[in-house]
Amino acid sequence: MRGAKPVEWTGEKLRILDQTELPREVYLELSSPEEVAEAIREMKVRGAPAIGVVAAYGFALGALKLKEKGAFALSELRRVKELLASTRPTARNLFWALERMMRAAEQASGPEEIVEEARNIERETRRADELIGENGAELVRDGMRILTHCNTGALATGGEGTALGVIKAAWRKGKKIFVLATETRPRLQGAKLTAWELLREGIPFSLITDGMAGYFMWRGEVDCVIVGADRIAANGDTANKIGTYTLAVLAREHGIPFWVAAPTSTIDLSLPSGRDIPIEERDPEEVLRVGSERIAPQGVSVKNPAFDITPADYISAIITEKGILRPPFAESIRKLLEAT
Amino acid sequence: MRGAKPVEWTGEKLRILDQTELPREVYLELSSPEEVAEAIREMKVRGAPAIGVVAAYGFALGALKLKEKGAFALSELRRVKELLASTRPTARNLFWALERMMRAAEQASGPEEIVEEARNIERETRRADELIGENGAELVRDGMRILTHCNTGALATGGEGTALGVIKAAWRKGKKIFVLATETRPRLQGAKLTAWELLREGIPFSLITDGMAGYFMWRGEVDCVIVGADRIAANGDTANKIGTYTLAVLAREHGIPFWVAAPTSTIDLSLPSGRDIPIEERDPEEVLRVGSERIAPQGVSVKNPAFDITPADYISAIITEKGILRPPFAESIRKLLEAT
Question: Which of A29, A91, B82, B188 is 20 to 30 A from B154, alpha carbon to alpha carbon?
């Protein structure tokens, strides 16, 4: 992304842009797996692919620390893995990255090789973003008015982004597009992060509240919906930021294509359907407060699922780095992953 | 409502609960039509029926002031009407109440009779609420989990409420219900006002963000949706708080009944369909700020329609003080209004 570096490995530490502080640009230097776990849990870094990259570096930091203490051993590294895996339950990329790191650790003679694997994961994630952008931009027609949800840009991946990466790629190819960005309550990633990225890129857009999406579709002012994914089951059912399912239902009702953009590392073949994906329930305070402002009376009970499931039936295409998948997804996903 | 008095005529002034200050209970004394117009515009009082009642008293205050100044004349009263009518464009009850006040003024020999007409409007609005509650409670089955949007309670009408009035009536009849209340961005009437009323009434509920509605329907945790209305066209198309249409689409997708509760004063026979209802676009700051907290970077463009249109096709029933209307609404509305 132009200017800011959301995730950067300095050789010894992990430097991240604290996404809870934006639009103020505050960087954090993380030097232990505990600090990385905390940053993921507190959503100082978020977005499924970025969580994968950062967790990989957290694991590498653990390996470096253990070496320093003379305690470099697989059993210790397994504890580092468990710590990082316990931060958030839904995003597939977290577990995918940690499993890769653990396999690398099993082969490695020292922490340097483990750090190298984290760098590989980062490089591959960036490269996947580029290819997702290229593939997805083919779907975007000149003049399209695109609705997107949450943040799926550079901040969410460390590269160019998934859904927002497609939007940027189409824009850079000269397509005249217009974006409607949902604010994405409760954490407001649309208002805070996507708006910030779109402004930097110069892409014309308007911010709307989540409840406005249906109205603009009803008015005929939305031509497609693009969202990211936190986990995709073997049949194509997709977990993504809460509110995504509602947009998918609205899109189908209005005959609007609904596209999911995600790297194949988000696909979890071990889960047959979306019903099997664990949905994180987060702190009620996220709903009850906006910054320092409390929005509801004392004593109010709150539900705060962070994700929802969009059944594959509602999805028109899944844009990956390896190509665009079409329904029936159970088949197209299997074929794609078998072929590679 | 137990305890608080959202709207009260003191004999000379209009005392209202400032709804922008809740849960702090701050009362305002309004003594001129200008002050009333300001309170409506700033949403210190809101909700279609309450706006109607308050505008009627604003008109009455105008009549009293004109009398004081020795300028009591129909032409002056017409200017008072225009001032009050210019505050908000969507709610039918505002215009309905002002037209009634103007007709009363044409017959009146002095301001006392005009005040009396405002009191009639208030009494009728309260009585309509009671009957809407009674009629609607018939539809609510024991154990139902009810989703509602925005605030449609005592604060919205001055009586017991429309949609929330139905919920309260069912609860008071001993039905074990559970409410999911959407926070209703941007103004958060669900989080601030509905939560406050439900707490006072002791009705069990959870607060959710607007984007969560689909998820809870998908989980099978919603049995019906009840909302209010700001204007109902002759064919049953309904303007209501932004986000309502999205809930209606979701409800139909899940086979969940979708009920609108409103007094017949909300029906506008002069408009054939919802496409003809003017939708108010409000200040972008409502989206960009939550209290003192700014949620998006500088330079962001915002859309802020305050209402949307739910086509009659999505509505299972319209609950009025004169009975429950069923589709086809063009016919049932016409019959109901002809019969009375």
Answer: B82
